[in-house]
Write a structure and sequence with these properties.
The complex is a heterodimer of chains A (354) and B (515).
Chain A lengths: L1 E5 L5 H25 L4 H14 L4 H23 L7 H18 L8 H27 L3 H21 L34 H18 L1 H11 L1 H6 L4 H28 L10 H11 L4 H24 L5 H17 L1 H4 E5 L5
Helix pairs in contact in A: 1-2, 1-13, 2-12, 3-7, 3-8, 3-10, 3-11, 3-12, 4-5, 4-6, 4-10, 4-11, 5-6, 5-10, 7-8, 7-12, 11-12, 11-13, 12-13
Chain B lengths: L12 E10 L2 E11 L4 E6 L5 H8 L7 E6 L2 E3 L4 H7 L1 E4 L11 H8 L6 H14 L15 H14 L4 E5 L7 H16 L3 E6 L2 H7 L2 E6 L2 E6 L6 H9 L17 E10 L9 E9 L3 E5 L6 H9 L10 E3 L2 E2 L5 H7 L1 E4 L14 H9 L13 H14 L16 H13 L5 E5 L7 H16 L3 E5 L3 H7 L2 E6 L2 E2 L3 E2 L5 H7 L1 H11 L1
Parallel strand pairs in B: 3-8, 3-9, 6-7, 7-8, 13-18, 13-19, 16-17, 17-18
Antiparallel strand pairs in B: 1-2, 1-4, 4-5, 9-10, 11-12, 11-14, 14-15, 19-20, 19-21
Helix pairs in contact in B: 3-5, 11-12, 11-13, 12-13, 13-14
The chains are: A mainly alpha (354), B alpha/beta (515).
Chain lengths: 354, 515
């Protein structure tokens, strides 16, 4: 007979093992589901979870997709630690890209080293501004940031559609809904000749290390953790919950905005209606897969980036629909939440005499 | 009426050589004891002495590794609490399991092993309330009841099953003195009816007043069995903590110095829904003195503490002054930096973060006065050294500064928290319930540290419901009642009857509520 038993202390082993168990369960369950639907389930799972990592020519693509995921997830995870649930990173990501693109369009006929940094700054500020709205509503009026940040995402999407179809439409673009292509001074430098590997990848890694040190070594990181774990103790220790809410929302908005700018000034090179691909939402899964730990998030970002790449592979090899990627990602989130129970509980086998 | 205690009557419960180990600890080792029918038997021991484990074994929550349990002379196995109840063992836990939104009778019905007809149950409950003259309205919703009344629900729940043995786990830790008296009367009546009672506590005066026999545990072993009516309190305390009990040494406290903390006309509305309004609170605490604030729980103690700590700000700066400087509008951090330290009653989640290590908890309130995080960067070395100092000086039993606060027993965590504050040499220390749930040995050590802190020139304010503690510690005493504070009186000049008069309003209200 199986029985759940509460652990005396949370298991450190399970803390790090449970994401791996979740990945294994996702693969197993995905295999069963897609086999039942009449696809080659084994092959589908192999294409999505293994092929991207086994073929070295795919690694650059994984890195390019992992960079925005990691950047966004870092900010979200810090907020989640403080019990601030920003789930509208997608909107902040879009607004960052829009703000940066605004600078690009203004400087269209200029040259200079300063243009890209100005776009980066605008991207950060754009994401922050969008995140400031839920922060204000939460701190001043006690409105749940979960709802406001999510709803603002759809406002951002519509705003993007309006811009690329209206005022920002490329005059030489044959009426396609898209902005001008960015110039060389407006584009991220390529780090690896002949690939899409851009500055965003080392930037994401650097940010992960900085985030890790901030959470572990500074009073600011301490404040985030105390406010999340024990609000009354935080107040007793002189930490302000309102200030922490502001700081974490602005930070996650800034990182999402930066990721959006990097994506616009990197792989896209312009804004189009296809720009939002859901990185802001997938980053939530990345944050949890990485156990809200900056270094774990790097691992989580690589795994989820792999599923994007693998999803494309599976479309051609197993003829899986495009939506299958999202399905696997959602399945992974469910499995993560389910296996989390193993940290505080263990399964015991019990032989009952009676 | 009492059962004759002859050799021929087997003990109601007899434990022989019970041992139980957990990874890393021997919680119980070779424990033997017996409880006669109708006897009120005390199980006495410090926090961590193994009382809880032993009781869990008797109630079937856990199984002993070795040893036998005999029930009325016959060996039995108790694989589950249900089996224990079937034998006739009832238990009233320290923490109640009641649904706030349901009535008394609904809660009782939910707790029974078998479904019972509601009307029949009502009649049975009424009969029990009648025969033990317990004041309790079966149709009231639980959230409207006092802690004492909630405890009565649990007792009635047990009595319904006509128990032969009733286990009471630290039943008085949450009760007012009046409620304690009433509980004792009920317990004596239950015992008179032939039911044995196993009474778990570390409050020696209660055991002396109530119990017929006592088994004293220390470090998981039985160190003595005695008759508490004959044995001296001091001797029992020494047996329990395994050392000569330290007497509190007051320095030359008669010479109170300058005013360090001055509160004048502090008013603050209570936080909804159940907060108490503070009304025009004024008092001075001087260097070298301990000011005691007595009162029954829920009369504004928690509000007073958060108003002083800076978790809630006063309406004007002058309402609170520290060494002559108005600080009423300063936040918690600034007040600490200025030298005002506070220890709230609730340890887990208020004074400390349960999921943080002791070292991390040291940062929580000590970073303002000690260089634990210069320029916002946490200095691991400084933090660990400070935490280790506190652990050593206050004899905190733990595996080290990396242990999670939640893994410590209540008493040990309290020692750490008190050490964290006293170790900062505050100008003023305000502490609520400094020894609540703390065993006698640790309580004596904490009280001595408070006296020593005052002797060094700090002002100490102790908010407590334990009148004995206040009389032992305080130089002056006042009473808080419905958010108002009485004028402080020197303890030396106070007679017990005068304190009774000071608390009179409270006592009267309590009696009226149950009349």
């Amino acid at each position: 007979m199986l029985e759940w038993r509460r652990r005396r202390e949370p298991s450190t082993l399970m803390l790090w093992l449970s994401p791996l168990i979740a990945i294994a369960l996702t693969m197993l369950l995905g295999m069963i589901v897609f086999t039942a639907m009449g696809y080659d389930g084994c092959h589908a799972v192999e294409s999505i979870f293994l092929t991207p990592f086994l073929e070295p020519q795919r690694w650059a693509d994984i890195g390019v997709k992992a960079a925005p995921l990691v950047m966004i997830a870092l900010g979200l995870a810090i907020g989640f630690r403080a019990n601030v649930w920003n789930i509208g990173a997608e909107g902040q990501y879009i607004m960052g890209a829009i703000a940066g693109t605004g600078v690009a369009l203004l400087t269209y006929e200029m040259t200079g080293w300063w243009i890209l940094p100005a776009m980066v700054l605008a991207g950060i500020l754009g994401g922050m501004a969008w995140a400031a709205i839920p922060a204000f509503l939460r701190v001043k009026l006690q409105v749940s940031e979960i709802l406001t940040s999510l709803m603002l995402t759809y406002v951002a999407v519509q705003f993007l559609y309006y811009l690329v179809r209206g005022p920002w439409k490329d005059p030489d673009g044959f009426n396609f809904p898209q902005t001008r292509m960015f110039t060389a001074d407006q584009t991220l430098p390529i780090m690896l000749e002949g690939s899409l590997v851009h500055l965003g990848i080392p930037a994401a890694l650097l940010l992960a290390v900085v985030a890790w040190l901030t959470m572990e070594k500074t009073i600011a990181g301490y404040a985030v953790k105390v406010v999340g774990l024990a609000p009354a103790a935080a107040r007793h220790g002189g930490f302000s919950a309102g200030r922490t809410t502001w700081a974490t929302l602005l930070l996650s908005g800034a990182l999402a905005g930066l990721a959006g700018l990097f994506e616009a000034a990197g792989p896209f090179g312009q804004l189009t209606p296809q720009f939002p691909v859901g990185y802001g939402f997938t980053a939530i899964i990345v944050a949890f897969l990485g156990r809200l730990h900056p270094l774990g998030i790097v691992f989580g970002g690589i795994v989820l980036a792999g599923t994007y790449v693998g999803g494309e592979i599976a479309q051609s090899t197993v003829r899986l629909p495009q939506a299958a990627t999202g399905l696997f990602q959602a399945l992974l989130l469910f499995m993560l939440l389910a296996t989390d129970v193993l940290v505080r509980w263990r399964i015991a086998f019990k032989w009952r005499a009676a | 009426m009492n059962q004759p205690r002859e050799q021929t009557v087997p003990p109601r419960l007899a434990l022989a050589h019970i041992s139980k180990s957990f990874p890393g600890v021997k919680a119980n080792e070779d424990i033997s004891l017996s409880v006669a029918p109708g006897e009120i038997h005390a199980l006495l021991g410090e926090n961590g002495a193994g009382k809880s484990t032993l009781v869990k074994i008797i109630y079937g929550v856990q199984q002993a590794d070795e040893g036998t349990i005999s029930w009325n002379g016959a060996p039995v196995a108790i694989p589950s609490p249900k089996a224990a109840r079937k034998l006739g063992i009832g238990m009233v836990f320290q923490h109640f399991s009641l649904f706030d939104a349901m009535t008394v009778i609904e809660n009782i019905a939910l707790g029974l092993d078998e479904a019972v007809d509601r009307e029949a149950l009502k009649a049975q409950v009424a009969a029990i309330l009648e025969s033990y003259s317990l004041p309790l309205d079966p149709d009231r919703e639980v959230h409207t009841l006092s802690v004492g009344e909630r405890q009565r629900i649990e007792i009635v729940r047990c009595l319904l099953q006509k128990p032969k043995l009733l286990i009471m786990d630290e039943p008085t830790s949450v009760l007012t003195p009046q409620e304690v008296e009433r509980l004792f009367a009920t317990l004596r009546q239950i015992a008179l009816g032939g039911c044995s009672i196993l009474y778990i506590s570390h409050k020696l005066s209660e055991i002396k007043a109530l119990c017929d026999g006592a088994t004293i545990l220390r470090g998981g072993r039985v160190v003595a069995s005695c008759d508490p009516k004959v044995e001296t309190t001091k001797r029992m305390a020494e047996l329990m903590i395994g050392a000569e009990l330290r007497k509190i040494e007051h320095g030359n406290a008669a010479e109170a110095g300058v005013v360090r903390l001055s509160v004048s006309g502090l008013s603050l509305p209570g936080e909804p829904p159940f907060g108490t309004d503070l009304e025009e609170i004024s008092f001075d605490a001087r260097a070298g003195e301990i000011l005691g604030i007595a009162g029954v729980a829920g009369n504004g103690q928690a509000e007073l503490l958060t108003a002083l700590s800076g978790e809630r700000l006063a309406a004007k700066a002058e309402a609170i002054s520290l060494d002559g400087k108005p600080i009423g509008l300063e936040g918690a951090g600034a007040r600490r930096a200025a030298g005002l330290a506070c220890v709230p009653e609730e340890r887990n989640g208020h004074a400390a973060v349960p999921d943080f290590s002791l070292a991390e908890n040291a940062i929580l309130t000590a970073r303002h006065r000690l260089p634990l995080a210069p320029l916002g960067l946490i200095s691991r070395g400084m933090v660990q050294r400070f935490a280790d100092d506190v652990i050593r000086r206050f004899d905190v039993r733990t595996t080290g500064n990396g242990a999670l606060a939640r893994s410590l027993s209540g008493g040990n965590l309290q020692k750490f928290i008190m050490g964290r504050e006293i170790g900062q040499q505050p100008a003023v220390l305000v502490v609520s319930q400094p020894t609540w749930g703390v065993d006698a040995g640790a309580a004596a050590a904490i009280r001595q540290e408070l006296v020593d802190l005052a002797a060094k020139g700090s002002a100490v304010v102790v908010i407590s419901q334990d009148l004995d503690e206040l009389l032992e510690l305080a130089n002056r005493l006042c009473v808080i009642n419905e958010g108002r504070l009485s004028a402080p009186r020197p303890v030396a000049s106070l007679g017990i009857d005068e304190i009774g008069l000071m608390m009179g309003g409270i006592h009267g209200a309590e009696t009226a509520a149950h009349a």
